[in-house]
Amino acid sequence: MWKVGLTGGIGSGKTTVAKVFAVLGVPVFSSDEAGRRLLAEDRHVQQEVLRTFGPAVIKEGIPDRKALAALVFSDQEALASLNRIIHPAVRASFAAWAALRKAPYVINEAAILVETGIHLQLDHLVVVKAPEDERIRRVVLRDGTTENAVRSRMGNQATEAARTRAAGSVINNDGTCLVIPQVLAVHRKILQLATA
Ligand code: ATP
Question: Which of 15, 30, 31, 135 to mutate to test the pocket of ligand 1 (most atoms within 8 A of CB)?
């Protein structure tokens, strides 16, 4: 079974594209969702967070995502520490999940893949692209946040050029190109590669 990464910059439309793959019957694992679940439920992850960041980020016994987000927002070292706790747990969770799936390929959707080099452990990487202005517009609309906040989160991600260099397939979600035919073409390509 092939393991395929699906990534893209903030607001590129990764989750939207992942839903189309899911409609085609492809099992999709959301790394971002898994990270949130592990933080809320996994005792080991919670203990590590407490040990690293102290009681200020724990509320009623579990890590408070808002407090953690505020802490890592402008502190690169804190963000790296949090990622060192969460990412291995998410990887293990994905491996366990994939082992239970029966399909020619599965998708691991994640905002951060190229940045950590995790894509090198996968069989194929699909990158969703959209112009920066459009991505900002979408996230401001979706989250009710500010342009500056979105730009700041973009600063923690790889550049569009770095992602595209690592891509085996690219889906253009700029708002003018139709997405579903592109997903169908990539799906057929991966099926061919995975079953060759
Ligand atoms: P994040 O990195 O923040 O999780 P994402 O890459 O997963 O974002 P989505 O959540 O799929 O992106 O899309 C961002 C927003 O843009 C959503 O509200 C989605 O409905 C909207 N969107 C996605 N694609 C398009 C499109 N082609 N045209 C208009 N809106 C779109």
Answer: 15
* Beta bridge partners of residue 109, listed in sequence order: 6, 30
Q: What is the pLDDT of residues 78-122, one digit of tens each?
A: 999 999 999 999 999 999 999 999 999 999 999 989 988 888 999
Q: From the alpha carbon of 17, which atom of ligand 1 is closest? A: 11
Residue with tokens 């700041």: 152
pTM, full prediction: 0.93
For residue 28, CA distances in Å to 50, 57, 69, 91, 109 come to 30, 30, 25, 14, 7
Task: Write down the CATH superfamily of domain 1-27+105-196.
Answer: P-loop containing nucleotide triphosphate hydrolases (3.40.50.300)
Name the residue of 7, 10, 16 whose CB sits within 8 Å of the most ligand 1 atoms, as the mutation to test its pocket: 16
What confidence tens digit (pLDDT) does each residue in 32-63 have?
999 999 999 999 999 999 999 988 888 887 88
Parse the chain into domains and list their residue ranges. 1-27+105-196, 34-100
